[in-house]
Design goal:
Layout: E1 9-11, E2 25-29, E3 32-36, E4 41-42, H1 44-56, E5 64-68, H2 82-88, E6 95-96, H3 116-126, E7 133-137, H4 147-156, E8 162-165, H5 168-173, E9 178-180, E10 203-204, H6 206-217, E11 225-228, H7 232-236, E12 254-256, H8 273-282, E13 291-294, H9 301-311, E14 319-322, H10 325-332
Parallel strand pairs: 4-8, 5-6, 5-7, 7-8, 10-14, 11-12, 11-13, 13-14
Antiparallel strand pairs: 1-9, 2-3
Helix pairs in contact: 4-9, 8-9
Length: 344
């Protein structure tokens, strides 16, 4: 954030070793070293190395940009916001992506994808460039929650290099530097991010979802598997939804895979790939069949998508995300018409 005064304290709980190990993949092209974070899911060490190497080389390729995607549920007991948490503790040089701002503001549903033009305007305002390597991360408290949704959104709009940090809690615990404090000036630095095209193959909208569920009810699922990442009590209908007045329950034929089960209970990082694969298989999921991931508003469904990527579970081209998820579904169908089930 060159040229912007920060009211910050930069801290590092542990001194990092002077030896910097190489990032997973670095290529020599024309005598110039090009940095490349290879995996979708990256560790704190890999991000630290990439940031250090990038700052010490004359390479003119895109920057490595940490992107904070902090977001909290609307029923957060303390009424906090993601931006507030970003100001309290963040990776140095990080930018902030506001999940509640970068969306379709014309929709009555919370987190529907914005138009390509509005997405580009948001990237311009944040200061993201098309050739930036983006590493999206979450809050220290939640580990992985909303960051995968932001990473998925960037991929839907064709950003070339997108990664997810696994995770900010480990970044802090392992002694990598953080900074805090509000910015004296807005952290956004404008860019010329071009209006992208949207990869519609990654997204399911309501009418398509309704047809999929109808087929499930009729016993003709066509092999499509519906995953719901909400907690078991919300899925069964035993617990109210966090949005007042929203009906609870689940879509007929859906399989409950709570996103919390995909995370280590202590670190809140994604489990190792093999354990994730075993968990998906224990739920009866078939990696060879199409999968539609859903949740409350399309946020934690992307945690499942990221976990499937880490586990190598199925083909990413066979996975979609229901953008409106339960918040849209429960407002457009009824229990009386058989489109909402509850399990006692």
């Amino acid at each position: 954030m060159a040229g912007i005064a920060l009211l910050t304290r930069v801290s590092s709980a542990l001194a990092k070793p002077s030896l910097i190990l190489p990032v997973r993949s670095q290529m020599q092209i024309g005598g110039t070293r090009q940095l490349h974070l290879q995996s979708y899911i990256v560790t704190p060490k890999e991000l630290s190395n990439a940031l250090t190497e990038k700052s010490s080389t004359q390479n003119t390729s895109g920057r490595v940009v940490p992107l904070c995607a902090a977001w909290l549920m609307p029923n957060d007991p303390q009424g906090r916001t993601g931006r507030q948490l970003f100001h309290e503790k963040r990776i140095p040089s990080a930018k902030f992506f506001d999940v509640d701002a970068v969306k379709d503001h014309g929709s009555p549903y919370p987190h529907m994808l914005p138009s390509p033009e509005n997405f580009a305007r948001a990237m311009q305002k944040i200061g993201i460039k098309k050739d930036d390597q983006i590493v999206v991360y979450d809050t220290q408290e939640l580990g992985l929650f909303s960051a995968p949704r932001v990473a998925w959104t960037l991929r839907v709009f064709g950003h070339p290099a997108v990664h997810i940090l696994n995770n900010f809690r480990l970044w802090v615990q392992q002694g990598y530097p953080t900074e805090d404090g509000k910015l004296e000036a807005p952290e956004e630095e404008s860019s010329d991010y071009p209006a992208p095209s949207m990869d519609a193959s990654k997204v399911v909208h309501f009418l398509e979802m309704k047809e999929i569920v109808k087929n499930q009810i009729q016993g003709n699922s066509k092999g499509i598997q519906i995953v719901d990442a909400r907690s078991p009590p919300r899925w069964t209908g035993a617990e109210p939804e966090p949005r007042p007045g929203l009906p609870n329950g689940h879509m007929p034929g859906s399989i409950n895979v709570p996103f919390s089960e995909l995370l280590d209970p202590t670190t809140k990082a994604l489990l190792p790939g093999q354990k994730l694969r075993q968990l998906f298989e224990s739920k009866g999921l078939d990696p060879e069949k199409p999968i539609v991931n859903s949740c409350g508003t399309g946020v934690t469904a992307a945690v499942v998508d990221a976990a499937m990527s880490e586990a190598g579970f199925g083909n990413s081209e066979n996975r979609k995300l229901y953008d409106g998820s339960w918040t849209e579904w429960a407002q457009r169908v009824t229990e009386a018409d058989g489109m909402i089930l509850k399990q006692q």
